[in-house]
């Protein structure tokens, strides 16, 4: 998959530091987390429509990600928006429903 989350250095840095700083690496099974990252990447890149419920965090993240994220406050806010997107359960991307039920490692 070709995505700006992987190819754009500030976005990649924000993704990696957000994953390391949060509990997402241990909260979800690897396949579930990969699916969530891929879906968020597609939404951010415009290949999937932006769900109405996520318009504000997506717009805010895009605005912050377009700038340098080396400023600590901007980087922290960008990480928070990205984590919100990755944790969101009620995606309105398709009429059949959103994310599958959360799979938590035991």
What distance separates the N and C termini?
29 Å
Number of strands: 0
Question: What number is the mean pLDDT?
Answer: 75
So how many helices?
6
Spatial shape: globular
**Which regions have little confidence, pLDDT < 50, spanning 5+ residues?**
90-106
Considering the chains and any ligands shown, give keywords for the structure.
106 residues; mainly alpha; 61% helix
Chart the SSEs and their pairings:
Layout lengths: L3 H4 L1 H13 L2 H4 L2 H16 L9 H12 L5 H16 L19
Helix pairs in contact: 2-6, 5-6
Please describe what this structure looks like.
The chain is mostly helical. It has one domain. The chain contains six helices and no strands. The protein has helices spanning 4-7, 9-21, 24-27, 30-45, 55-66, 72-87. Residues 90-106 have low confidence and may be disordered.
């Amino acid at each position: 998959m070709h995505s700006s989350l992987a190819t754009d250095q500030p976005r990649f840095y924000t993704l990696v530091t957000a994953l390391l700083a949060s509990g997402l690496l241990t909260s979800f099974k690897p396949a579930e987390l990969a699916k969530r990252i891929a879906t968020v990447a597609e939404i951010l890149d415009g290949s999937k429509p932006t769900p109405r419920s996520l318009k504000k965090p997506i717009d805010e993240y895009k605005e912050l990600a377009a700038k340098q994220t080396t400023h600590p406050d901007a980087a922290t806010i960008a990480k928070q928006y990205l984590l919100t997107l990755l944790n969101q359960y009620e995606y309105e991307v398709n009429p059949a429903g959103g994310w599958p039920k959360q799979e938590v490692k035991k």
